[in-house]
Amino acid sequence: MTGPAAVPACDVLYADVRRRDPVRPAVLVDVREPDEVADVRADGARIHVPFSTVSQHLDEIPRDQPVLVICAAGSRSQAVAAHLLANGWSDVANVAGGMNAWERAGLPVRHGAYGGPEDPDPFT
């Protein structure tokens, strides 16, 4: 994956605010591998495209909404954000610090398998 040298980034607190924006919410795209997502995931992450398969699943990432890309620490999500920007997405940012920072900040997370109407599995 290649992309522009400068990739916009935001911290996890701003990412949480953006994903809950009542007017134009950002889509949180988790690019970690399935085992990482099953362990812990940001509450509200509704798109999962594993880093290893991003190129094959670009059509699953919306172009008409702000996109925030998250991984464990920020390096994979930075690469994916750069790739999206290089391929026509215009409102994309890397979530700096990733899920490690998300959890440290005490932001809402889910653990374990998906289930129930309040926590449907968006990744299947």
Summarize the structure.
By secondary structure, the chain is of the alpha/beta class. The chain has a single domain, classed as Oxidized Rhodanese, domain 1 (3-Layer(aba) Sandwich), CATH 3.40.250.10. Helices cover 27% and strands 18% of the residues.
How would you describe what is shown here?
This protein has helices at 12-19, 34-39, 75-86, 98-104; strands spanning 9-10, 27-30, 40-42, 47-48, 67-70, 92-95, 109-111. The chain is of the alpha/beta class. The longest helix has 12 residues, at 75-86. It is globular, with a radius of gyration of 13 Å.
Summary keywords:
single chain, 124 residues, alpha/beta, Oxidized Rhodanese, domain 1, 5-stranded parallel β-sheet, two-stranded antiparallel sheet, 7 strands, 18% strand
CATH topology: Oxidized Rhodanese, domain 1
Question: Residue share in helices?
Answer: 25-40%
The CATH class assignment is Alpha Beta
Structural class designation:
alpha/beta
- Mean pLDDT across residues: 88
How many beta-strand runs? 7
Output the helix-strand order: EHEHEEEHEHE
How many separate domains? 1
The CATH architecture can be named as 3-Layer(aba) Sandwich
